[in-house]
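tokens incoming
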């Protein structure tokens, strides 16, 4: 079972910015209905790309510094951090396939056999 990590204002740099793997970050809040719809998609993504892509959740209410730093105005916002590249993001509920397409993840998928 793949692990989804939880980042805070204090741990985000270590878990995301200094990671040697690509990281998908789910900026969410407990009161957000669409965020609850995204959660199972994040679990699928973590499972499919286990060992290739890390998945991290950030509660925007508990970590306002990160919300400000990354200009998170709407949630859910799903951001893709790839080492050496500018982060990219999508806003709102997106199924796994849409996230894979938006972030070019299919090239990182394990070989089907």
């Amino acid at each position: 079972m793949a692990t989804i990590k939880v980042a805070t204002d204090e741990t985000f740099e270590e878990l995301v910015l200094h990671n040697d793997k690509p990281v998908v970050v789910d900026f969410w809040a407990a009161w957000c209905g669409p965020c609850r719809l995204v959660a199972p998609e994040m679990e699928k993504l973590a499972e499919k790309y286990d060992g290739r892509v890390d998945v991290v959740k950030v509660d925007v209410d508990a970590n306002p510094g990160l919300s400000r730093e990354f200009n998170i105005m709407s949630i859910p916002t799903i951001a893709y951090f790839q080492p050496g590249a500018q982060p990219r993001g999508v806003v709102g509920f997106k199924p796994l396939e849409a996230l894979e397409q938006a972030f070019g993840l299919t090239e990182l998928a394990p070989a089907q056999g």
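note: The mean pLDDT is 93.
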